[in-house]
């Protein structure tokens, strides 16, 4: 079974305890009323759809927390997980291999 | 609620309904954890899964800012918590009736839980607890002894969980 490391529980647990929650690091508009239709469309629907390393949100049922993960969408390998609110880590060569 | 004991003949696991207890869900920011714990008479643990007990009251850390508190019915914890509300804002919700608790004990209890829990149940330390899934139903597993567990199940999922437990027990009896 696919194992995922929860940065809050500091434990590596089976995938069934986790839920995928979409792409990470999508900032909400600071002034929503000033948004044009095109900007709303991009904010709501347009995603990276990455082939390879993908920054995404996951939720752990155990601690009830959302966190971010960097997962390779080709191999389904989790390259790293980190707490929500932390800056987007750069993909190092070691992690990518 | 009746406290009926299900004694399955030749069954390696004893499944019992436990008496109702007071259950409270506490959400408080880490900065106010200590002062609220002082008001409740508990040193609220910070590690997810850790438990602390004082008197008849027990607190389990479910998440970085979430605790589950159990106490005998009739215990008043809301009054001391309300007294410190201005200094330590928090949410303290009575969820006593949301869940029912089963006690699972017996030599094969780990096999029984492993049949439906994806988590490595044997790796849960004795004296701690974990919120996990039991065939997609969210449950809280308290490990009181090497082969002694309590399981809090949301009331509406309880028939499903009980049916599965009975089915797995039948398989044990049949030697599968």
TrEMBL record, chain A:
Lineage: superkingdom: Bacteria
Pfam family of the protein (one): SoxD
Name of the protein in question: Sarcosine oxidase subunit delta
UniProtKB/TrEMBL annotation, chain B:
Gene3D superfamilies in alphabetical order: Heterotetrameric sarcosine oxidase, Probable tRNA modification gtpase trme, domain 1
Coiled coil: none
Highest taxon in the source lineage: Bacteria
Protein name as it appears in the record: Sarcosine oxidase subunit gamma
Native source organism of the sequence: Paracoccus benzoatiresistens
Lineage: Bacteria, Pseudomonadati, Pseudomonadota, Alphaproteobacteria, Rhodobacterales
């Amino acid at each position: 079974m696919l194992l995922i490391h929860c940065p809050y529980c500091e434990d590596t647990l089976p995938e069934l305890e986790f839920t995928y929650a979409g792409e990470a690091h999508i900032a909400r508009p600071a002034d929503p009323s000033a948004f044009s239709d095109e900007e709303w469309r991009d904010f709501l629907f347009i995603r990276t759809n990455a082939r390879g390393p993908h920054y995404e949100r996951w939720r752990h049922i155990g601690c009830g927390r959302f966190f971010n993960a960097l997962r390779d969408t080709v191999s389904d390998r989790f390259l790293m997980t980190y707490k929500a609110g932390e800056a987007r880590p750069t993909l190092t060569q070691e992690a990518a291999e | 609620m009746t406290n009926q004991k299900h004694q399955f003949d030749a069954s390696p696991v004893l499944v019992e309904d436990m008496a109702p207890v007071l259950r409270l869900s506490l959400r408080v920011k880490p900065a106010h954890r200590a002062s609220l714990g002082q008001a409740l008479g508990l040193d609220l643990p910070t590690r997810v899964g850790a438990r602390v007990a004082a008197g008849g009251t027990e607190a389990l850390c479910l998440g970085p800012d979430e605790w589950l508190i159990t106490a005998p019915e009739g215990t008043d914890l809301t009054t001391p918590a309300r007294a410190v509300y201005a200094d330590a804002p928090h949410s303290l919700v009575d969820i006593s009736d949301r869940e029912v608790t089963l006690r699972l004990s017996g030599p094969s209890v780990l096999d029984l839980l492993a049949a439906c829990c994806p988590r490595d149940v044997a790796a849960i330390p004795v004296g701690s607890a974990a919120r996990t899934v039991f065939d997609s139903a969210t449950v809280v597993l308290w490990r009181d002894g090497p082969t002694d567990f309590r399981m809090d199940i949301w009331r509406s999922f309880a028939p499903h969980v009980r049916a599965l437990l009975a089915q797995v027990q039948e398989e044990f009896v049949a030697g599968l």
